[in-house]
Amino acid sequence: MIADSAAIASYHAHIYYDPATTREVAARMRENIAERFAVQLGRWHDVPVGPHPGAMYQVAFDVQVFARLVPWLMLNRAGLTVLVHPNTGRPRDDHLIHALWLGEKVALKGEALPESEPRADIPAIVPNTAGAA
Ligand code: ZN
Asked: Is 88 a domain residue?
């Protein structure tokens, strides 16, 4: 079956870091993202949450931000691992099959993710940064 990319409602980038060694690097990246892009920055998670095996914060963004933000992350991830996944209403597939990784790929806990969710339940992106889209 060929999927239409219109199925993608939005994207997440998850920025992984080590609270003991790379939190500062992650903090600088967070500031740089906030200055440059209209995205919704999530809270710091120094303790693993959901499918994520390590500390991270989430950057949620609209489809039209992808073409600028993802190349920027490619060039500026400063050694950190970044998971980029679409939100299509199939959370398990979105993380385990449809994702792309910058840097070292880490094993996600797929069992923590529902197979499907109603598309209407995918939260709209509410930018909370100063950056212009
Ligand atoms: Zn996510």
From this structure: yes
